[in-house]
From TrEMBL:
It comes from Streptomyces levis. InterPro entries: DUF6924 (IPR053832). This is DUF6924 domain-containing protein. The lineage of its organism: Bacteria, Bacillati, Actinomycetota, Actinomycetes, Kitasatosporales. It holds the Pfam family DUF6924. Residues 10-137 form the DUF6924 domain.
Length: 140
């Protein structure tokens, strides 16, 4: 079994916390409002409740090469409860298991650049702040 495939040129946003449906709705609304075009394929399947990053890595490693995805964004308990709804971005390919937090307002930029392979996961992960969150690139 492999992770669900995102729609064309979108990123997979996988719900892993099922304690608050209203918060999940707020996360989706924040992500949708952040960009002009759809950037997310939302998956809310109970089999992913509280899933660990290693389990996702194992699932992808076992999938056929054509079915593998290179990154995923998790909507976990932190995403649902914290202001800014910071997703957990997870690299499934180049540096499997590398993560960073991504507030909703930055999601469209990161998703678009990763989806078209304009930038690598590491470029965003390397630009995180002291809290481990990507908040854009420094100007100038």
């Amino acid at each position: 079994m492999s992770l669900p495939q995102p729609d064309d040129l979108t990123s997979l946003v996988l719900r892993t916390d099922f304690g608050d449906d209203t918060a999940w709705d707020a996360v989706r609304a924040a992500l949708d409002a952040a960009g002009e075009y759809p950037h997310a394929t939302y998956v809310s399947e109970p089999r992913f409740a509280d899933v660990e990053v290693q389990a996702l890595l194992d699932e992808e490693a076992a999938a056929d090469e054509d079915a593998q995805i290179i990154h995923v964004f998790l909507a976990d308990a932190t995403t649902l409860r914290e202001p800014g709804h910071p997703l957990l971005a997870v690299d499934l390919s180049d540096e499997p298991g590398r993560t960073f937090r991504l507030p909703a307002r930055w999601f469209p930029d990161v998703s678009a650049n990763l989806s078209i392979a304009n930038m690598d996961f590491a470029e965003f992960a390397d630009a995180t702040d002291g809290s481990g969150a990507f908040r854009g690139f420094e100007e100038g």
